[in-house]
Amino acid sequence: MLKIMQELNIVRAWVGLNDRQTEGTYVWSDGSLATPTDMKLFIDQQPDNSGDADCVIILQNYMSMDDV
């Protein structure tokens, strides 16, 4: 995914992960729960729910996820 983002000059993209139903419980768009391995893909100190963030994006320049 990051390679495609770099080729198309996309700096951020939604990854299909959110905690809209239950704060702090991240669910993929197919309904499966995020695993501990998935959660390690976040930037340090994230997710932090700043601004009541519910959706997750990947940031190409950090090669990590952030909640927005």
What's the pLDDT, averaged over the residues?
94
Strand proportion, as a percent range, falls in 25-35%
Distance between the termini: 19 Å
Quaternary? single chain
Domain C-type lectin: 1-58
Organism: Biomphalaria pfeifferi (Bloodfluke planorb)
Protein name: Brevican core protein
Pfam families: Lectin_C (PF00059)
Protein architecture, described:
With 68 residues, the protein is of the alpha+beta class. Helix content is 15%, strand content 26%. It contains two helices and four strands, in the order αββαββ. The protein has helices spanning 2-7, 36-39, and strands spanning 12-18, 27-28, 55-59, 64-67. Strand 3 (55-59) and strand 4 form a beta hairpin. This is Brevican core protein. It comes from Biomphalaria pfeifferi.
Any descriptors?
2 helices, single chain, C-type_lectin-like/link_sf, 4 strands, alpha+beta, globular, 68 residues, four-stranded antiparallel beta sheet
